[in-house]
Recover the amino acids of this structure.
């Protein structure tokens, strides 16, 4: 028996498996093929990776003042360990004259304000605006096998008849988290396989 030493993989570094040859049997004859090189897709190996869902919604209640844009749920697998949520991107689109020019407010399931360090949202009349909600320097901890729902609010202005605000998640690459078990910060959402494309709309 031959034992192979495999070096440990550093969390969030690119890994790739490559087939460099194989043996096959034709009757009693074994043939080795060594000129084949077939690489698999790149993989980013991490201890924990979250799933992000923006709850699909279409509701009334758009006013001049604070309105809820969306509920976003971030969950983790039981086997993967805890994460610290660092950055959550959103895109908001205005239909009509409604606009936003203010920091967003983030609240937890109990309605308590969640501390953020950045989240200024500028949405002009009839156009879209992006912001990345940055949580405090330690991040927002989500334990393994659990989920947290964040309600995102902003102050609307210029509301007229037949106006609406529609919210969806921003680019995966702008989503950031820390893999707690490997103490690796700044992992972006690019390799995530569950990242919602839903939208949440509020209108009058």
């Amino acid at each position: 028996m031959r034992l192979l030493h495999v070096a440990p993989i550093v969390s969030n570094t690119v890994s790739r498996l490559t087939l460099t040859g194989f043996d096959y049997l034709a009757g009693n004859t074994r043939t080795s093929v060594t000129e084949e090189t077939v690489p698999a897709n790149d993989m980013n190996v991490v201890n924990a990776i979250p799933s992000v869902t923006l709850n699909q919604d279409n509701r009334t209640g758009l006013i001049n003042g604070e309105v809820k844009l969306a509920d976003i749920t971030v969950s983790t697998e039981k086997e993967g360990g805890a994460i610290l949520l660092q950055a959550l991107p959103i895109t908001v689109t205005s239909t009509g004259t409604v606009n936003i020019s203010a920091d967003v407010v983030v609240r937890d399931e109990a309605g308590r304000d969640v501390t953020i360090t950045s989240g200024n949202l500028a949405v002009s009349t009839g156009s879209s605006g992006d912001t990345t909600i940055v949580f405090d320097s330690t991040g927002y901890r989500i334990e393994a096998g659990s989920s947290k729902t964040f309600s995102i609010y902003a102050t609307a202005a210029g509301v007229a008849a037949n106006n609406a605000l529609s919210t969806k998640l921003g680019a995966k690459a702008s989503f950031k988290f820390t893999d707690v078990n490997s103490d690796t910060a700044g992992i972006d959402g690019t390799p995530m396989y569950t990242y919602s494309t839903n939208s949440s709309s509020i209108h009058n």
Summary: The first strand starts at residue 14 and ends at 15. The chain has no helices and 21 strands. Residues 101 and 122 are 5 Å apart (CA to CA).
